[in-house]
Amino acid sequence: MGLPLRDGRLAKEDWNGIIENVDMRLSSWKGRLLSRGGRLVLINSVLSSISGYWLSIFKAPKWVIQAIVKRRRHFFWKGGMDRGGYGGVGIKNLAMHNLARLGRWWWELANDRDLIWVEIVKSNYFIRKKWYDLSSPASWSTTWKGILGAKELFDLGMEKKLGDGKSTSFWKERWCRNTRLA
């Protein structure tokens, strides 16, 4: 799949591979011959898919997001003024895209999907804890820490219904104004 197998944090060289892939793709396109709409489609479909798989597994460092965003903006505006701060033109927010892809893992865990990876994660990380009680000890994998980084955003959009109490903690869920009772 092209993902690095490392013990610990990904090195800068690992992330540079994605940036180089974006650069290679951009160098083969003739941006000046395309309308802004054509460039927008290429940015949102092709460039997002280059980094998409990595962003669904790892939380990208800020410098990686900034480097890719800089290249996307330059391609879209083709050396013109960067108008990124004056409202959207339809280019996906890469940092939010990263969190959304990582949040998808939480969706699968929270819904107790009958998937093999869910069982593996539960047996490794959910020992004596529910998914909503997890924190990130130093011994956990970089991948899992990245996924755990999207948990807070996932919690904000999560709606819990009381049932038998097995998957909902009365004290630890966010009930009122996004605060916990305990």
From TrEMBL:
Tell me which PANTHER family the record gives.
OS12G0587133 PROTEIN, REVERSE TRANSCRIPTASE ZINC-BINDING DOMAIN-CONTAINING PROTEIN-RELATED-RELATED
Protein name according to UniProt: Uncharacterized protein
The organism encoding this protein is Canna indica
